[in-house]
């Protein structure tokens, strides 16, 4: 199987378009197509960026209608899902931009996008195990001993990463560097933590290069393991990028 795995898009639809063009996809009827390859998404397709709902439409179309791609949810997807279910969620940390787009729609369009996203979210696994277990795609990554398992612990890990329950002085959750101690045979491709350049450690690939914070939108070509990026048009926000030693 030949895949192009795309990092956190966060509503950066134009950057996504540019990236797929660079990857050799042809856009037909507002959808990227390639004769030999499929797209995969590491989650967090919405929030903060300018065109979150367009990304929902597109990922729904690729994954659910054409059955020609893979998607796993991120923490932002989980929160939007709960918002669409009518749960009491805080419309902050970027969700406000997606909700503003949604509130601008007519009633019929609202129902349509809400139902699509709910269906996409509920149909998608917490993480994908692909290519005869050689490849795992999970939003915030996954530990070796959680692969193949389900449940709340797995859900928390793949959505939020290896969190300790403590918070940093800036209010963000403390995340352990699980990749550093990963020694499994499967390649793990993930996003969630913005880094200036893709971070490759022990057969794990963090491809969230902070498109929505003015970094790049990155794709990992599998099985070639080639990294391809396009620069973002968003303003650069230095402090959003995590540095690793
Ligand atoms: Mn995330």
UniProtKB/TrEMBL annotation:
InterPro entries: Ap4A_hydrolase (IPR050126), Calcineurin-like_PHP (IPR004843), Metallo-depent_PP-like (IPR029052), MPP_PrpE-like (IPR041780), Ser/Thr-sp_prot-phosphatase (IPR006186)
Domain spans labelled Calcineurin-like phosphoesterase: 1-195
SUPFAM superfamilies: Metallo-dependent phosphatases (SSF56300)
Short name of one Pfam family: Metallophos
Name of the protein described by the UniProt record: Bis(5'-nucleosyl)-tetraphosphatase PrpE
